[in-house]
């Protein structure tokens, strides 16, 4: 499988629960390297732009309000099959449906406050990493 990069966000609920380190540990144990990282409080404009693909969905306003409700931690992860591997570590969007042992099963409380974001395709990963990081903020490939 190819060496890939993906964009991950620890959402405001998980930052508030003080589980940044626990989530980072899961990435590391799964052989995903954190190659870029920053904490930020998204503006309305940043959150709307990031989730632009969901603009017409009924949950869009709630999603943007939630993502701007507190600080988040944004990271690029690198490793073999990183995009799918991260989605597997995250578990299903709705934590009630997430498999035991996944990040969302363990730390998320609702479909809105669901702890983490992860890119869902190679095209999304490329767009989302560039959305948050300049090239000089990402570790060079090893
Ligand atoms: P994410 O983009 O945050 O990684 O989540 P995802 O791929 O698992 O889910 P996606 O379909 O991209 O939806 C983005 C976020 O919108 C909220 N959502 N609410 N009420 C609903 O039916 C609903 N559906 C989605 C979730 O918080 C989801 O993470
Ligand atoms: Mg998504």
Short overview:
This protein has helices spanning about 10-15, 20-30, 45-50, 60-65, 80-90, 105, 120-130; strands at about 5-10, 35-40, 70-80, 115-120.
Can you describe what's shown?
The chain has about 140 residues and is of the alpha+beta class. It has one domain: Nucleoside diphosphate kinase-like domain (Alpha-Beta Plaits, 2-Layer Sandwich). Helices cover about 40% and strands about 20% of the residues. A 4-stranded antiparallel beta sheet has the order 2-3-1-4. It binds ribavirin triphosphate (RTP) and magnesium ion (MG). The site of ribavirin triphosphate has 10 residues, from strand 4. InterPro entries: NDK-like_dom, NDK-like_dom_sf, Nucleoside_diP_kinase. It is an enzyme of class 2 (transferase). Keywords: ATP-binding, Cytoplasm, Kinase, Magnesium, Metal-binding, Nucleotide metabolism, Nucleotide-binding, Phosphoprotein, Transferase.
